[in-house]
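Protein in question kept underneath.
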Amino acid sequence: MKMQSILSGYVLHKRPYRETSMLVDFFSLEQGLIRTIVKGVRGNSKSDRKSLLQSFQKVEFTLAGRGQLKNLGRIESLNLRSNLIGNQLYCGMYINEVLSRCLPEAEPVSEIFDDYEQSLLSLSQVSTTQLSDIEPILRIFELNMLQTLGYLPDFSVEANTGEPILPELFYTFDAQSGFHLSHANAAMPYTGKVILDIADGKMSRDSTVVDRVDEQKASVDELILRRAAKQICRQAMRQLLGQKPLKSRELFIQG
């Protein structure tokens, strides 16, 4: 008798399947993205399984079956569900949708799994509801995911020459090849300083800034940095997402 593998992870996405079942995407530590059938949970308000198939709650589960689409076996909670509300919730749903669409199936990606858990923790602990202050969590996650999956060009060198990116020069970004030397009047130019700061993970202002003039300048620099990181991530992720829009982005507009 073949032993069932015990997996741990999170529900990313679920949708109706046939009359009483659901198709559920799990992100597991051991096997990455796993798509499963969960039988008999739709319309059954007394089902314990239904209450466990919630986003942002870590669960332990087993799979059964020989085909590519497995049946969910045992499932139980490993900890309390992350309490996300408002924009934090929308950001969590955005990350889940990105993972469901970008991850390769049945391939372990422990670095991304660790980043996912850290992002959920950061979202649950953030003290502000302002989207502009929450978005750096998304950018850091996106950049790490793209780097791990091999879709992020080198941020340290110019694509054509291999020369180091210089803070005072301007560059344009191409998702396939990387950063190209350009000028200030080009479409969507980035300074070398912004590129290097994104690579260093400098998404938020230094809390030690005390001078009012310096603090105001830091706020402007921070805004420029965040906008650039968002544009670069969107361009790079288009290779994985294709032309189909993300449904979770509509939540930010509606909210």
